[in-house]
Write a structure and sequence with these properties.
The protein has about 120 residues and is an all-alpha fold. It is built from six helices and no strands. The radius of gyration is 14 Å and the shape is globular.
């Protein structure tokens, strides 16, 4: 959802919450995904600023869209505290393994670990 939202120029989240084909979700799962996507989108500026500060040797604008959204989601979950930080980081690393390049899981792990420590969550 976050990728589609960003690729389409930040339209209302409801317009991208219906995912095509293989991404069909049960209503309960779609509701949770949409809730998370809306929450991330509402905090985009603060999330991006923190990610940029922790992405050492990377200019934020050079981070790919998939990678940015994985980092945004992971950081949101760390901040929200609904799941323990190590779980949020592990989930983000798994997303990076599935949807991003070979070096991305280590990058995601390093950035989110740094941010979780700054926030006192690790």
């Amino acid at each position: 959802m976050l990728y589609a939202w960003e690729a389409q120029g930040h339209p209302p989240m409801e317009t991208v919450s219906e995912l095509p084909g293989e991404f069909k979700l049960r209503p309960r799962d779609r509701h949770r995904a949409e809730r998370l996507a809306v929450a991330v989108a509402s905090q985009l500026e603060a999330l991006d600023r923190d990610i940029a500060s922790a992405a050492h040797n990377w200019r934020f604008e050079r981070i790919g869209t998939v990678e940015k959204n994985i980092l945004r989601l992971g950081l949101y979950e760390i901040r929200a505290g609904e799941v323990p930080a190590p779980v949020a980081i592990d989930e983000a690393v798994k997303l990076a393994q599935w949807f991003a390049g070979a070096k991305t899981p280590g990058f995601v792990n390093g950035v989110l670990d740094t941010l979780a420590r700054r926030l006192g969550r690790l």
